[in-house]
Write a structure and sequence with these properties.
This protein has about 300 residues and is α+β, with helices and mostly antiparallel strands. The protein is built from 9 helices and 14 strands.
């Protein structure tokens, strides 16, 4: 635990009991984290969340989740509105950065904070755009009908695919391997995942999950625009089926798209989704090559 004698700020590692604070603050900023997000990322790095308190009251937070020995992702950088402008956020930020050690760190930051992030050594890689729109209740493509259509890839529940194949496919589209995270993300309560297979090879997979304001697709990785659209439709159909006809009429879905992937932007716009929020993906150093052309939806703005 770190304590500042002048401000009374105590910074400590956060645990599962602190997650509701992170979640509520993030919801207040419009980030809309899913209810299972915290458990998934705490499983990946139980020491990667930090909270600052004054007199026992949480006032600041940050997460720096380590993936292996070379990469970390920073998120949930938050300060309670009543305590902003007093240096508490920066002190908590520094504690988080120490946890990363010499790893390259990534983040998805709000655009207006880019200059501040640059001063901490981050450099812009690309922009991400959150598209939000209604889940289309009249989608005719479901996982079952796609699988049995005989045209295009077969779409099956992700649980039917060997975990090692998912890990390898995911690893080419994220800056680090993350098997522990994937094990939780693919099986978390409420999460629906589908994989696309063609000629016995995995050619894409995606996950859709519930969240308070709107459901969220992420990741959505696919070899081609056609595979991405097939998975997109299957995921939404699966969500609508899980929620029932009454829920489908009011259900909205978000897809967080790298601006550099024109086909991903076109997919979102083709289904009537509208831009609602942008971030700047930034890194403190070089990351391994990522197949960005097959990234149609990132996993999470907050945690990678």
């Amino acid at each position: 635990m770190n304590q500042d004698s002048k401000t009374g700020l105590e910074i400590a590692r956060a645990g599962a009991n602190d997650w509701p604070v992170f979640e509520s603050w993030a919801a207040g900023e419009g980030w809309n984290p899913g209810p299972a997000d915290g458990g998934c990322f705490l499983a990946q790095d139980p020491d990667g969340f930090f909270v600052g308190r004054i007199d026992g009251q949480p006032v600041s937070a940050v997460s720096v989740v380590n993936y292996g020995e070379t990469f970390s992702f920073l998120g949930f950088y938050l300060v309670h509105p009543d305590f902003r402008g007093q240096g508490h956020g920066y002190a908590t930020w520094q504690a988080g950065l120490e946890h990363a050690g010499d790893r390259v760190i990534g983040l998805d930051g709000v655009l207006e904070q880019q200059d501040n992030y640059r001063r901490s050594g981050f450099r812009l890689a690309h922009r991400n755009i959150r598209y939000v729109g209604p889940a289309l209740a009249d989608l005719s493509t479901s996982a079952g009908s796609v699988s049995g259509s005989g045209a295009g890839p077969s779409v099956v529940p992700v649980a039917e695919i060997g975990r090692s194949a998912i890990e390898v496919y995911d690893g080419a589209r994220f800056p680090a391997e993350r098997p522990v995270f994937l094990a939780r993300w693919l099986s978390a309560p409420g999460h629906i995942g589908y994989a696309a297979v063609s000629d016995g090879e995995l050619v894409g997979y995606g996950v859709i999950r519930p969240a308070p304001a709107f459901a969220k697709i992420g990741p959505l990785f696919a070899d081609t625009p056609e595979v991405a659209e097939t998975l997109f439709r299957a995921l939404i159909s699966g969500l609508v089926a899980a929620g029932g006809p009454e829920a489908s009429s009011s259900l909205e879905v978000a897809l967080d798209v790298p601006e550099t992937n024109a086909a991903a932007v076109a997919l979102a716009e083709r289904y009537g989704m509208k831009p609602s929020f942008e971030t700047a993906r930034m890194y403190t150093g070089p990351v391994r090559d990522i197949e960005m052309a097959s990234v149609y939806g990132i996993t999470s703005f907050e945690l990678g």
